[in-house]
Amino acid sequence: MPDLILASASAIRHKMLVAAALDVELRPVSVDEAGLRAALAQDGASPRDMADALAEAKARRCAGRYSQGFVLGCDQILDHAGRVLAKPQTRDEARQQLLDLRGQTHRLWSAAVLYQDGAPIWRHIGEARLTMRAFSDSYLSGYLDRNWPAVSESVGGYRIEDEGIRLFSAISGDHFTILGLPLIPLLQYLSDRGAIAA
After folding, report:
1. Any idea which residues carry the catalytic annotation?
2. Which of 39, 55, 96, 197 is deepest in the core (most CB within 10 A)?
3. Separation in Å, CA 75 to CA 5, 24, 30, 92, 135
4. β-pairing, 4-6 with 168-172?
5. Contact yes or no for 126/177 (Cβ under 8 A)
6. How far is it, in rounded angstroms, from Cα 16 to Cα 110?
7. CB 65 within 8 A of CB 190
8. Per DSSP, what are the bridge partners of residue 26?
9. How far apart are CA 116 and CA 38, in angstroms?
């Protein structure tokens, strides 16, 4: 039995968990994220609550298939002045997102929900604030030349673990939350529960 079943195909989340010496099994699930985001927005949910609801939806769906062990669902929402940005589908969309964020501060909400025996037992929502510098149009074009389509997998069209770090002038929040998983609180919980060596 692995330490965790991750209800995702996210390579970066998997890499973080494995680097922390956890035995992780990937079990991606299909959730209508766009539809759920739209429904939550219509109900007036905050970006923070959207991240939490999406993470729980993934964990719940996966936990329905795996009755034993810990099932982890994660999601991340980019909040720019109350507007939620999703992963860019095209290079032009990535360019527009980066132009919208240029010279501005936005928030990333990274939610994690842990299920066991078909029920939620733990949740955490991390927050990070990121300020983009006023980069030039020519730098942006070169950045997309070098990094598209890899950045299509990241909300906002950037990955701080790669060249995307050069887009920023200030960052507040822990590195793991920015990468999409509040890892330190998760490890502390699993350690406190005796699920991993303390």
Report:
1. 75
2. 55
3. 15, 17, 13, 24, 28
4. unpaired
5. yes
6. 14
7. no
8. 6
9. 28
Amino acid at 3: D
With a pLDDT cut of 70, the percent of the chain lying above it is: 100
Helix axes 33-42, 47-63, angle to 10 degrees: 140
The pLDDT-based confidence of 144 (bands split at 50, 70, 90) is very high
One-letter amino acid of 174: D
**Model-level pTM?**
0.94
Task: Name the amino acid, one letter, at 4.
Answer: L
Between the alpha carbon of residue 155 and those of residues 19, 96, 119, 127, the distances in Å are 23, 12, 29, 15
In whole angstroms, give the CA distance from residue 73 to residue 115: 8
CA distance 124 to 109: 10
CA angle 60, 62, 64 (to 5 degrees): 70
Residue 123's alpha-carbon distances to 15, 68, 70, 161, in angstroms, are: 20, 18, 12, 25
- For 7-56, how does the pLDDT look when each residue is reduced to its tens digit (9 = 90+)? 999 999 999 999 999 999 999 999 999 999 999 999 999 999 999 999 99
Note the maximum CA span of the chain: 52
